[in-house]
Design brief:
The complex is a heterodimer of chains A (289) and B (96). Chain A is α+β, with helices and mostly antiparallel strands and 289 residues long. Chain A contains 9 helices and 16 strands. Chain B is globular. Classes of the chains: A alpha+beta (289), B alpha+beta (96).
Chain lengths: 289, 96
């Protein structure tokens, strides 16, 4: 039995077949923890005729019969249990990494580049918090790690319709524990990713739009309604936010890391100091607008 | 009603909206549809004038005085903004 933990709570996941158990462990990665007692739920992944079944689900499991699909569903079900037991948190569809005690929250729809950017940022020294779901304490403005194994899409350079992006194959990027944030981190910067044809582009994100986009990516918004609107508006008023459009996540991560490391430790300063366009030219030098 | 009359219609903020100030901008949340809309500074200024007592021309004159520009020059922007807000359900435009 594996224990998957986030924000101080755990879901137990049982898989009897060694091959399936290994796949479950690989899926949840650094979110697997030693069992601590008082789990909130127990999910069992079991092979059945024609596919896999998940027992203990919050919602009916519909799958195409493959293990990969069952694992996706298992991850979703575990997340639903965690959301249900910590409704006090804002659960965002987002990725997050941290450096110098500040988290960079990357919020966006599927296919916008969250996971790619987060894993590239880990490659240049950031600590990983998660690539898909990040819980936030709306009072203290801190992000909790939910470090399931990130999966990134292998995508060709160039624009693709969103529907096409969603069908691209994903592959897991295994991370060592040393690369994972050990605990909650205050959010220092919010980033909304998107695609840019050639140059990386950075632009400030207005505060009310930040709040709207956080609402859009909030997974438990309906539970709270107006209360959540006020909480996210308060957070958006204190967090600097940028839009970052890129084609090459590696170069985007390098530009972000350089801005943070180059004597401007505060995320706000980093956001303000990023050139509006970067990455042009064979020498890779940043361009100032 | 697709258009908004400059002189006759007096736009009014819809009932049942939640307004939150976010620094110098405003977020408006429509509980009925679950939709949130961000208003930048300019849109917020127009929004604040939509109390049901002013026409678009009145708004243009008021904002023109505030910023030292002819009110008429602002009318196309105000009209477009009011039309957009109404389409989003933020405003009611009772016919005069």
């Amino acid at each position: 039995v594996l224990a998957v933990g986030c924000a101080g709570r755990q879901v137990l996941i049982e898989a009897r077949e060694p091959r399936v158990r290994r796949a479950v462990a690989a899926t949840f990665g650094q979110a697997c923890q030693p069992p601590q007692g008082n789990p909130i739920a127990r999910l069992t992944l079991r092979r059945v005729r024609g596919g896999y079944a998940i027992l203990g689900s919050c919602e009916p499991h519909s799958a195409d019969g493959t293990l990969a699909d069952a694992l996706r569903s298992l991850r979703y079900q575990a997340t639903l249990h965690l959301i249900a037991v910590r409704p006090d948190l804002v659960w965002l569809h987002a990725a997050a990494v941290a450096r110098d005690g500040r988290a960079l929250l990357i919020a966006g729809p599927g296919g916008s580049g969250k996971s790619s950017l987060a894993t590239e940022l880990v490659g240049v020294g950031f600590r990983y918090l998660g690539d898909d779901v990040i819980p936030l304490d709306p009072v203290r403005g801190i992000a909790y790690p939910f470090p399931v194994t990130p999966t990134v899409r292998s995508r060709p350079s160039g624009p693709l319709p969103r529907e096409a992006v969603a069908t691209l194959p994903r592959f897991a990027v295994a991370l060592d524990a040393i690369r994972v944030a050990p605990g909650p981190v205050p959010v220092g910067l919010v980033l909304f990713p998107g695609y840019a044809r050639r140059l990386g582009e950075v632009r400030p994100w207005p505060p009310a739009r930040t709040a709207v986009d956080l609402i859009r990516h909030c997974l438990n918004f309906k539970q709270h309604g107006e209360h959540m609107v006020r909480a996210l508006c308060s957070l958006a008023a204190t967090w600097p936010a940028i839009g970052l459009r890129f084609d090459d996540a590696g170069r985007a991560a390098q530009a972000l890391a350089a801005a943070v490391a180059n004597g401007r430790a505060a995320a706000r300063a980093a956001a303000e100091s990023l050139p509006r366009q970067y990455g042009r030219g064979d020498d890779g030098a940043a361009l100032s607008d | 009603m697709d258009s908004v009359s400059l002189a006759d219609d007096r736009p009014c903020r819809s009932a049942g909206l939640l307004e939150c100030e976010v620094l110098d901008e405003t977020l408006v949340y429509l509980d009925a549809t679950g939709q949130a809309v961000a208003l930048n500074r300019s849109a917020r200024e127009i929004w604040k004038l939509c109390g049901g007592g002013r026409s678009i021309v009145d708004m243009g004159n008021e904002l023109g005085r505030r910023y030292g520009v002819p009110g008429g020059a602002l009318l196309p922007d105000i009209q477009r903004t009011v039309r957009r807000m109404r389409a989003l359900g933020l405003l009611e435009v009772p016919e005069s």
